[in-house]
Design goal:
Structural class: mainly alpha
Oligomer: single chain
Largest sheet: none
Helix content: over 70%
Number of strands: 0
Distance between the termini: 22 Å
Radius of gyration: 19 Å
Shape: globular
Order of helices and strands: HHHHHHHHHHHH
Number of domains: 1
Number of helices: 12
Strand content: under 5%
């Protein structure tokens, strides 16, 4: 694929929005029948192995240079493994509204870090566009029927979700860009998923001394397949393809579309009402993203 063609980048990252927008709700339903960490461990073990087999078939080579192993281990361990532990436990212990609002700050966190660490130059216009889109996300999520729960009951989940947002923005999105100059997105993502899965299995081994994790139940089977193949293999690989093409800060901006897509999906397929407030928020998201992505 031609990395100079911006249309391809928009298509790939647009596909990520569609896949990940549905992923949260699908994965949440699986938690009724299996523990979140066990679900994530099985998911990323399968995704990682399948991606590496795809790399071996397509590229005939699985090698990673010795100098890159430290970075790819950190990206996989922190950006996939630790992130999934925090995200899964956070999603289980807080409301969907809280979780969505907390993750809406990920693009800003990633851009600020990339700018501060001199990994990317982020123009002031991009920050203003992100803030405008973030305001739109707030209007979309906090519809009249939604409830923002700020209590001690959700505090642990909110803090875990915030830590996950930081891990996702920095370790999973900003750090891997040097690797993508040398290796294909599927090779980087395959190794990161396998390393992340190892972290998850270690967490399960340690945690099994204090709690029971049960098993992956029948109701979690289809969510597991979706999360592993579409949300995982396809979505994550397209995400890394986007980072390699347009950079981390621009790629993160596409996360603002996920709440908008979720509202539209629920309207057309579930019959949920769209409020004027949400329509205004959607307009702000589109305006903010357009402003932020302009060169």
């Amino acid at each position: 694929m031609d990395k100079r063609d911006p249309k391809i980048s928009h298509i790939l990252l647009g596909a990520v929005v569609l896949l990940w927008g549905a992923n949260v709700g699908i994965v949440k339903t699986a938690y009724q029948d299996t523990h979140p960490i066990l679900f994530a461990a099985v998911r990323f073990t399968g995704s990682g192995i399948l991606l590496l087999l795809l790399v071996l078939w397509k590229e005939r080579d699985l090698r990673i240079q010795r100098k890159d192993w430290a970075l790819i281990t950190l990206v996989g361990g922190l950006g996939v493994g630790v992130y999934q532990i925090l995200w899964s436990l956070g999603l289980e212990r807080t409301s969907a509204t809280n979780n969505a609002l907390i993750f809406a700050i990920s693009p800003l966190l990633g851009a600020l870090y990339a700018d501060w660490a001199k990994r990317e130059s982020v123009q002031r216009r991009r920050y203003w566009g992100m803030l405008l889109a973030f305001g739109g996300v707030i209007l979309v999520i906090l519809k009249p029927t939604a409830r923002l729960h700020l209590s001690f009951g959700t505090l642990s989940g909110d803090l875990l979700s915030l830590m996950a947002a930081i891990c996702g923005a920095i370790f999973f999105t900003v750090w891997p860009k040097p690797l993508l100059r040398t290796y294909s997105p599927i090779r980087v993502m395959g190794y990161c998923m396998v390393i992340g899965a190892i972290v998850l299995w270690i967490a399960l081994l340690i945690g099994s001394r204090f709690m029971s994790f049960g098993h992956v139940g029948a109701k979690a089977l289809w969510p597991l397949i979706y999360a592993a193949v579409l949300g995982g293999m396809v979505g994550h690989t397209f995400w890394y393809e986007g980072i390699g093409r347009v950079g981390a800060s621009k790629t993160l901006i596409y996360l603002y579309f996920i709440p908008l897509w979720a509202a539209l999906f629920n309207h057309f397929y579930l019959g949920e009402k769209i409020f004027i407030q949400q329509a205004l928020g959607g307009g702000l998201i589109l305006l903010g993203v357009h402003y932020a992505l302009r060169d």
